[in-house]
């Protein structure tokens, strides 16, 4: 028993344990090597944040504050996410040209790369919706389902054909013709200005894609066989408009003719 105990406590046993520990360490290092590679791939993200901060400080901080906390001239941007930045910047609504009821669409002041950098900085301030991927707003959704969703959730403001409409206090729902599908998706995701937001819990991505597909098809591919669309208010509303307008012209012409008769002149 003493000899067996002596063999178990042999000094070489410590060396064997050490070698085994070194081998295990090497295996763990090899297993986690891809994680380091992933960290290297994330390096451009940090660069984008820094570049975005520079752009933000030079062009956005005067209204939204140095840290995105908001001021009396602009709301807080903490938690709005990169999707909101992409929508506002790449539709030209931001930077704001002048104060008014709402920001309007205009030519962009930044490139897509610069917008992405600003979005990366804003996203670093607080969690928010990310810019959707191309497959999320691809035009391969269910058109009938999208039409039903649009009429239920959007047509009250944007008109059932996406022509837009007036809102209180000088605000308006903009027309959806020629709007980039990505920006339509981002508007639903972030709820800019007067529009409610439809996050993925309220409206799943598949339904958003259906709406984007429907809107794009209606506003770009739907013909006007009768000539002018007149806002596509529908045959009853459009017929009433034409009848009222035409009747007004007839009445005005009758009054003008009556005023030029000899009897009218003698009076």
TrEMBL record:
What EC number(s) does its UniProt record assign? Answer: 7.1.1.8
Q: Which superkingdom does the taxonomy of this entry point to? A: Bacteria
What is the top EC class of this enzyme, as a single word? translocase
Give compartment(s).
Answer: Cell membrane
Broad class of the protein's primary localization: membrane
Indicate how the chain sits in the lipid bilayer: Multi-pass membrane protein
- Domain (Cytochrome c) spans 47-219
**Which keywords annotate this record?**
Cell membrane, Electron transport, Heme, Iron, Membrane, Metal-binding, Repeat, Respiratory chain, Signal, Translocase, Transmembrane, Transmembrane helix, Transport
Q: Which reaction does it catalyse?
A: a quinol + 2 Fe(III)-[cytochrome c](out) = a quinone + 2 Fe(II)-[cytochrome c](out) + 2 H(+)(out)
**Pfam families xrefs:** Cytochrom_C (PF00034), Cytochrome_CBB3 (PF13442)
Q: List the signal peptide residues.
A: 1-30
Q: Where are the transmembrane segments?
A: 240-259
Quaternary organization: The cytochrome bc1 complex is composed of a cytochrome b (QcrB), the Rieske iron-sulfur protein (QcrA) and a diheme cytochrome c (QcrC) subunit.
This protein's name: Cytochrome bc1 complex cytochrome c subunit
């Amino acid at each position: 028993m003493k000899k067996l105990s002596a063999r178990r406590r042999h000094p070489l046993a410590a060396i064997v344990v050490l070698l085994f520990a070194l081998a295990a360490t090497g295996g763990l290092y090899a297993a986690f090597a891809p994680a380091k590679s992933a960290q290297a791939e994330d390096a451009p993200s940090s660069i984008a944040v820094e570049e975005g901060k520079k752009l933000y400080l030079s062009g956005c901080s005067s209204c939204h504050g140095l840290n995105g906390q908001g001021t009396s001239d602009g709301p807080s941007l903490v938690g709005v996410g990169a999707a909101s930045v992409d929508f506002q910047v790449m539709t030209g609504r931001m930077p704001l040209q002048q104060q008014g009821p709402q920001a309007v669409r205009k030519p962009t002041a930044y490139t897509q790369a610069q917008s992405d950098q600003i979005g990366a900085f804003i996203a670093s301030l607080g969690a928010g919706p990310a810019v959707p991927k191309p497959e999320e707003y691809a035009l391969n959704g269910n058109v009938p389902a999208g039409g039903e969703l649009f009429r239920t959730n959007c047509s009250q403001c944007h008109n059932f054909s996406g022509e837009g409409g007036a809102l209180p206090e000088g605000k308006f729902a903009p027309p959806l013709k020629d709007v980039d599908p990505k920006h339509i998706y981002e508007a639903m995701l972030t709820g800019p200005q007067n529009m409610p937001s439809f996050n993925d819990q309220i409206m799943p991505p598949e339904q958003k894609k259906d709406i984007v597909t429907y809107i794009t098809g209606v506003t770009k591919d739907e013909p006007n066989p009768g000539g002018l669309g007149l806002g596509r208010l529908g045959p009853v509303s459009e017929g009433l408009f034409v009848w009222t307008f035409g009747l007004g012209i007839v009445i005005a012409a009758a009054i003008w003719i009556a005023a030029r008769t000899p009897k009218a002149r003698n009076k």
